[in-house]
Amino acid sequence: MTVPMSVAFVLSVLLLLVSCTTSDPLLTNFLQCLPKQHQNFTYPIFETIYTHKNTSFQSVLLGYIRNSRYSTLTTPQPLAIVAAKHKSHVQATVICAKEHGLQIRIRSGGHDYEGLSYVSDVPFVILDMFNLRAIDINVVDESAWVQAGATVGELYYEIANKSKVHGFPAGACPTVGIGGHFSGGGYGPMMRKYGLTVDNIEDAQLVDVKGRILDRKSMGEDLFWAIKGGGGASFGVILSWKIKLLPVPDKVTVFNVKRTPEQDAINVIYRWQYVVPKLPEDIFIRAITRLKNNTEGKKTVEVSFFGLFLGQRDKLVSLIKESFSELGLQRQDCFEMSWVESTVFWANHPFGTPISVLRSRPQGPPNFFKSKSDYVKEPIPKEGIESIWKAMIEMDKVLMQWNPYGGRMAKIPESETPFPHRAGNLFKIQYVTYWAEESSVTSNIHLKFLEKLYEGMTPYVSKSPREAFQNYRDLDIGANLPNKTKFGTARVYGSKYFKGNFDRLVRVKTMVDPQNFFKNEQSIPPLQRETQ
Ligand SMILES: Cc1cc2nc3c(=O)[nH]c(=O)nc-3n(C[C@H](O)[C@H](O)[C@H](O)COP(=O)(O)OP(=O)(O)OC[C@H]3O[C@@H](n4cnc5c(N)ncnc54)[C@H](O)[C@@H]3O)c2cc1C
Ligand SMILES: *[C@@H]1O[C@H](CO)[C@@H](O)[C@H](O)[C@H]1NC(C)=O
Ligand SMILES: *[C@@H]1O[C@H](CO)[C@@H](O)[C@H](O)[C@H]1NC(C)=O
Ligand SMILES: *[C@@H]1O[C@H](CO)[C@@H](O)[C@H](O)[C@H]1NC(C)=O
Ligand SMILES: *[C@@H]1O[C@H](CO)[C@@H](O)[C@H](O)[C@H]1NC(C)=O
Ligand SMILES: *[C@@H]1O[C@H](CO)[C@@H](O)[C@H](O)[C@H]1NC(C)=O
């Protein structure tokens, strides 16, 4: 916990010294451009600009870094951060960065697994969206406008503040940002009922490469399609989304039951694969495998079954008894609560935590972590599951999360949005390994281990391509340099994230940003040309 803070302090002192003696001409030009582009005196732009000379530069930078792997002494830092407070600040930043050859990285909640929203190897500025976080709920219309810098927790809180019978299907982690989360697909425990966030979006506001503000009508259906899961950062800056509010019952039921190998966990999780993806769409049961010391102090695994049922306890218990008796779910395992309280439960807070916790922003430095994803189309045999467990037990600080598909997910055509992983998938796997201290030795041990685990999973998961979830960003599956986009490389990661939708994403990109201004290591390239 103390390491990143002292790192930050040393860095800020170093950088203060550096920036007092040298001034980067790129930065100077960019800073001189901004006020010329920006004429709205009600919202002065200088109040939003942080350079290394501002004492709060480091705290603003660190405030939305959610993976400590990308805040070390060697991590490149931006020349400046523009923490936009008004749409016109976003427009000016895009225009001036383009004019002066600076790359921009757009950051909303900063949860990108590989830090692409706040790190680049070339001179860059961060366009930070955390100040643009208004949420405007319209219960009569059953819709809401949400700015990109809001978090999903704030959205859940605001919906519940206006209605007890509406909800929205988005992620389980309340601090995730609307900007990245929605444009990367976005899923949560209501996805079997309502699909992804992007299946429930009605409109959006975006600043394009020319600095214009477009909505669904003026951007056209192709670009609107692309930003709903194709990754916003390739196409423009999303200012806000208009979402559909969806009905939820006034009481839902949750549970979290744990099974160890001694309690026949192998059979329960094996059956989970056959049963849970076919259950009624009102039920979602996530299975998380973690390491645990058993009563003899020996390392073993434990599987948690986390459930959400959009209905009442008695109905859930009888349904599970009938179709998934192996789980052994009892009435006393189940808790009825409002939908918004269930989002607090899914965020791992203890029972009784007030829902105001949904509005808290990230606090303190996060872990170091690395994550990967897979899709499973055929149940994994018991021997397979046992070999995964064996591999996990050789490691520490690792977990594996299985998220069931089916329900509404299987009914939406693959080309409806850029997110292609629909029918034919039983579930998605997320692997995570994490550690607490900055050490290249520790980090290498964990990264190597995860690579080996992923390797070992090959026989059980999707093939050609081996599919991956874009919101679980993973640079190992293919990545470009930040300043050189090779089409062939982009096709490698693009087909894993988007399958056949990659080609349409490329056509949209070619139309709206042919010079490839909006780019990162895993962005969508314009057609068949290498760009600088
Ligand atoms: C603890 C944790 C829990 C998570 N849980 C879930 C979950 O339950 N479900 C799920 O689907 N995902 C989950 N994720 C993944 C998460 O959805 C993605 O990391 C998502 O991209 C985060 O969005 P962000 O705005 O916080 O991230 P950022 O790091 O700010 O952005 C991510 C990407 O989107 C781009 N971007 C951000 N804002 C904009 C914008 N306004 N316009 C254009 N491009 C933009 C960035 O440049 C970057 O490429 C989780 C991640 C973490 C760390
Ligand atoms: C500044 O922004 C406000 C709010 O969006 C708007 O009402 C006003 O017209 C703008 N002023 C100028 C000079 O563009
Ligand atoms: C950063 O410092 C400059 C120069 O002192 C100042 O004009 C600006 O307002 C500061 N930025 C913020 C966000 O306070
Ligand atoms: C791209 O950036 C790298 C540093 O990451 C640099 O060495 C290289 O010269 C750059 N290439 C171009 C074409 O700008
Ligand atoms: C809505 O939010 C406001 C402000 O946080 C709070 O005072 C009020 O009690 C909330 N109302 C409901 C119904 O939750
Ligand atoms: C198991 O016990 C070891 C040794 O006491 C400890 O270091 C480790 O953190 C424990 N693991 C878990 C998952 O509790």
From TrEMBL:
One of its GO terms (biological process) is cannabinoid biosynthetic process. Residues 74-248 form the FAD-binding PCMH-type domain. Keywords: Disulfide bond, FAD, Flavoprotein, Glycoprotein, Signal. It comes from the Eukaryota. One of its GO terms (molecular function) is oxidoreductase activity. The keyword DNA repair does not apply. Transmembrane segments: none annotated. Pfam families: BBE (PF08031), FAD_binding_4 (PF01565). Residues 1-23 form the signal peptide. Its cofactor is FAD. PANTHER family: OS08G0158400 PROTEIN. Belongs to the oxygen-dependent FAD-linked oxidoreductase family. This is FAD-binding PCMH-type domain-containing protein.
